[in-house]
Amino acid sequence: MPKTSKTKTPRLRDGKQTFLTVTAATDLCTFLCGHLPEMRRKSVLSLLKHRQVKVDRNVVTQYNHGLKPGERVSITWTKVLQDRGLQGLKIVFEDPFLIVVDKPPGLLSIATDKEKERTAYRILSDQLKTIDPRQRIFIVHRLDREVSGLMLFAKSREIQQLLQKSWDKESVDRIYVAVVEGYVTQTQGTITSWLKENQARRVFSSPTPHDGQKAVTHYSVLKHSPRFSLLEIRLETGRKNQIRVHMQEMGHPVAGDKKYGATVSGMKRIGLHARLLGFRHPVTAEDLSFETPVPPAFLRLCS
Prior knowledge:
single chain; alpha+beta; Structural Genomics Hypothetical 15.5 Kd Protein In mrcA-pckA Intergenic Region, Chain A; Pseudouridine synthase; 3 domains; eleven-stranded mixed beta sheet; 6 helices; elongated
């Protein structure tokens, strides 16, 4: 494994990554060869081919990609996961410590008594093991089966615990978009309640303050149609079914969510998508933010 005194390499178990800052305009291959003199040009090109090089967090595979002063180049010394075989999952970000994926609707986050094979966790874990049979992943947070969007996995128990400790703090930014039934007249607001779960696994707000888990949901209206409203929803807490319960209590259930009061849909799914995820990297201390587009079906319903 290459070593160089010019790099900063945070370590955790077998993970290793190198960060370099561009100081003068050049192309990527020349830059890498200059900072990795012990590597042959063929080996540098192999790093690019296997998607192990990023410029400002974006994977770059072109050897002649132009670099500008101030840009940050990162090199991952283990092969990264490809999208092939991920059955609908899309890799948004990966480094030696964590993975961010875009989960499609209809896919469980993790196994249940009824479904143990086709889950985001199982699909991702199986693919990682094709690269390194020893590699394990640990789920940081879940999305409901019906919900699409960004999910975070850790590559070690230590990283999982570090991320989960900050999950309900201001350091984690979670923004959803939701299509809800009806015309929401109040352009923005906050819903606060205490959530509980009954024996049928249905979540509800307790009529007694402090009886259950406190849940806080902030929302703002993005656009309307006569029958639906598109909301941006920011979570202050991340409780099970929190958004779905709070939208029902507001009198505007999430479109297609029959479990929580919806009577119409207009789509073959429920109208909830985890659009943005921001947090501080537990190893590099870098502030990361990832975003996915609003599903086109959401925009069609609200236009």
